[in-house]
Amino acid sequence: MVEKNIYFFIGEDSVSKDRKIAAIKNEIFANIHSTLDYELFWSDSLEPKKLKEALNSLPVVSKKRIIVIKEVDKLAPANKHLLLSFAKTSPKNTLLILDTNKPEITKDDFFKEFSRFVSVFNFVSKSSLNVFDLGRAIANKKTKE
User: Is 90 exceeded by the pLDDT of residue 121?
Assistant: First the structure.
């Protein structure tokens, strides 16, 4: 089986997403404490030139670079084109993680084309709790909740 170097995180459970990213970083960076091979971008402020530069960069210290792009539902068309080109070449030295809170992105034409090259992870919140739910859980000694 071909290892996919692009992960698509879909869903609103940001805590679980952050845990998954931390686990991936621990696995790839092992005993290396370096931020040189990790980049985080937000789609709405990502310039195509900066994205292209990040995608073409080689790892400095570790065996792979990790690039995380948040809110990919807000990607500019030029960035979508760059990501699709990247996916088709699928370099082994870069792990790309695309993140969105919007599950409806699966209906988007870009996602449909792009999904051939990615591993999709769904992060669905069980329910959104508020301070009152937390108070009731504490009062009822329901530590699991």
Answer: yes
CA distances to 16, 28, 83, 111 from 11, rounded to whole Å, are 10, 24, 20, 14
Which residues, in sequence order, are bridge partners of residue 68? 40, 97
Nearest residue to 13 (alpha-carbon basis) of 95, 124, 138, 135: 124
pLDDT tens, position by position, 8-31: 999 999 989 999 999 999 888 887
Tell whether the model's pLDDT for residue 1 goes beyond 60.
Answer: no
Rounded CA separation 102/122 (Å) = 11
Query: In terms of DSSP bridges, do strands 94-100 and 65-70 run parallel, antiparallel, or are they unpaired?
Result: parallel
Measured between alpha carbons, how far is 30 from 110 in angstroms, rounded to an integer? 33
pTM of the entire predicted model:
0.82
CB 72 within 8 A of CB 100: yes
Q: How far apart, in whole angstroms, are the C-alpha atoms of residue 5 and residue 132?
A: 42
pLDDT tier, 145 (very low <50, low <70, confident <90, very high otherwise): low
Q: What pairs with residue 102 in β-bridges?
A: none
Compute how many other C-beta atoms are within 10 angstroms of the C-beta atom of residue 23.
10
